[in-house]
Amino acid sequence: MSEQTLAAAPGTATPEQLEYLLRLGDNALILGQRLSEWCGHAPVLEEDMALANMALDLVGQARLLLTHAGQSEGRGRDEDQLAFLRVERDYRNVTLVELPNGDFGRSVVRNFLFSAFQVLLYGRLSSSADAGLAAIAAKSLKEARYHMSHAAEWTIRLGDGTAVSHDKAQAALDYLWPYTAELFAASPADDAVAAAGIGPAWSELEAEWEDLVLPVLAEATLTVPARVPFKTYGKFGRHSEHMGHLLATMQYMQRTYPGAQW
Amino acid sequence: MLTEAQAWKALAAVPDPEIPVVSVTELGIIREVEAGADGLRVVVTPTYSGCPATEMIASSIEEALLAAGAGRVSIDTRLDPAWTSDWIGSEAREKLRAYGIVPPSGQAAVGGARPLHFVRRSPLACPRCGSTDTTRLSEFGSTACKALYRCRSCLEPFEYFKPI
């Protein structure tokens, strides 16, 4: 591993800031893991490569973010320990990213909903008071824009496509939409981090996110479900039944051969 | 001991592992070379976060510098400012085109927002036959940095190095 010059002064993060950094890293990591499941299984070769490339981008972002989180924490945990050796309750990703891929339509619609959020979030984080985080965000933003553009095009193509593709895209949106509420749920960590100028409270992004997402869904001729009361707790470490299975696969090597490097 | 100028010269011969027609210096990822008492320090800015070639590039750099006579080499990663395809020089762009990869168009790093739908203002010209009757097959090609296109005139596929 080459030396990182991310400048995080070791051990300077408050518990709230660490929580926030882990959320960022875990979202990228878990969606990266989900997208990588498509490798060798996508409907066409071009999309197989696209999904695998996006998975690589996300895992790359997760490496940077978790390295930064570990350095900021100052307890000597590196990217691998954070990615592979935590227990389920210690992951801070939203439920949306851990849901099973479902069909190609569901994966694409999720990528769209989530990458639009990432574009906004990384955009704001690129002027973070945490210089290391700002650098990671400015870099990741460029990648997230391509992910969003890819997913938006597919969402439109499927939604405004054949009767079958429309129904599948609509079913995907109906399934995923309630989980997006969690992105914008207020939390004490968000408030503390926003007050410190490190990043936005996620709830601040909701209106902008809708401005970005709704026109595309309209163009895709999809009906946006009504908001229903829905509580998810992934941000606080309480995950769906799908998370354990995902971790069992993802952590297998490190659990079987602790400390293995390659 | 290797001087900084000699080090830059050695680095100019290190190819990108994915696109060997351009060197790491032409890609613009070598940001700084510093010769100090305890060897050479090279600052590298990675391209994409998940680029699988990153570690390979670091080891090729070290190998090339050691072979050129450097006593000790250390490689630092710098993320800020983020790498942009704008750093690829004009000579390297022509090398890419001759190799069958259309170089990035326009400027990537300036401005904030990007249109949600990429509607290409001017169609890409096929690097083989020059026809502009081309169509995009996928936003992501063999690597994240390239999109896959097809020429409808000569029917050959080609890649486009995306502006980022």
Element layout with pairings:
The complex is a heterodimer of chains A (262) and B (164).
Chain A: E1 3-4, H1 15-36, H2 45-73, H3 79-84, H4 95-98, H5 104-125, H6 131-159, H7 163-176, H8 188-195, H9 206-219, H10 241-250, H11 252-256
Helix pairs in contact in A: 1-2, 1-8, 2-6, 5-6, 5-7, 5-9, 6-7
Chain B: H1 4-11, H2 24-27, E1 30-36, E2 39-44, H3 54-67, E3 73-77, H4 90-99, E4 101-102, E5 134-138, E6 146-151, E7 157-161
Parallel strand pairs in B: 2-3, 4-7
Antiparallel strand pairs in B: 1-2, 5-6, 6-7
Kindly describe this structure.
Chain B: Residues 4-74 form the MIP18 family-like domain. Chain B: InterPro entries: Fe-S_Maturation_MIP18, FSCA_dom_sf, MIP18-like, PaaD-like, Zn_ribbon_PaaD. Chain B: It comes from Azoarcus indigens. Chain B: Residues 122-162 form the PaaD zinc beta ribbon domain. Chain B: This is Ring-1,2-phenylacetyl-CoA epoxidase subunit PaaD. Chain A: One of its GO terms (biological process) is phenylacetate catabolic process. The complex is a heterodimer of chains A (262) and B (164). With 262 residues, chain A is mainly alpha-helical. Chain A has a single domain (15-223, 235-256), classed as Ferritin. Helix content of chain A is 62%, strand content 1%. Chain A contains eleven helices and one strand; from the N terminus they run E-H-H-H-H-H-H-H-H-H-H-H. In chain A, helix 1 (15-36) packs antiparallel against helix 2 (45-73) and helix 5 runs antiparallel to helix 9. Chain A is globular, with a radius of gyration of 18 Å. In chain B, the strands form two sheets. Chain B has a four-stranded mixed sheet. In chain B, strands 1-2-3 form a three-stranded mixed sheet. Chain B has helices at 4-11, 24-27, 54-67, 90-99, and strands at 30-36, 39-44, 73-77, 101-102, 134-138, 146-151, 157-161. Chain B is built from four helices and seven strands. The termini of chain B are far apart. Chain B folds into two domains: 4-77, Fe-S cluster assembly (FSCA) (GMP Synthetase, Chain A, domain 3); 93-161, no CATH class. Chain B is 22% helix and 22% strand. Chain B is α/β, with parallel strands linked by helices. In chain B, strand 6 and strand 7 form a beta hairpin.
